[in-house]
Amino acid sequence: MTTKAQQLEQIATDIIKNNVCPDLAMQANRLVMGDGNPDADIMFIGEAPGKKEDETGLPFVGASGKFLDVMLAAAGMRREDVFITSIVKYRPPNNRDPSTAEKAAFLPYLLRQIEIIQPKIIVPLGRHGMEFFLPGVTIGQIHGQPQQMELHGRELVIMPLYHPAAALYNARLKQTLIDDFIKVPVLLKQLETLPKKA
Predict the structure, then answer these.
(1) pTM greater than 0.85
(2) Is residue 198 over pLDDT 50?
(3) What residue ranges in 63-164 does DSSP mark as E strands?
């Protein structure tokens, strides 16, 4: 039987084989699939790799990543306990926002990651990470508020948060983000105490 790690590696192989977003692939150094625990209960989803991520092949290792580490620590979590990825797996040129077509092209592979990891809580970081799960709302309206959705017949809790980069540009958002982050493990504890559905 293949392990979760092998199944996740297969997704990377398939992205390359299927030539997903060739324009992005051509100018990127590497594919950035994700990092962390394949059995994680909490999965963070950003928008796309930046310069540092493209160099290292790891998600959230630049300035936003350092702030992400601070918030994880504030919430009593570590990177190795969670899984961190993004919708788009190649860096867009000059760190521009990923396009609708790019997000759509990578979405099936993100859904496969979710299917393998089976997290209890998905935490989209920023609007690009949130759009698929909660279309038609803004991050300002619902950040830090758990929302329920069904995906492939499984109940999922979506907890949208501002992107860590937002706090680097807007100091007022910093405390909001930390406060929201601290709610995530609390929410997980609440979910674990709920009676299981028959």
Answers:
(1) yes
(2) no
(3) 83-86, 121-124, 147-151, 154-158
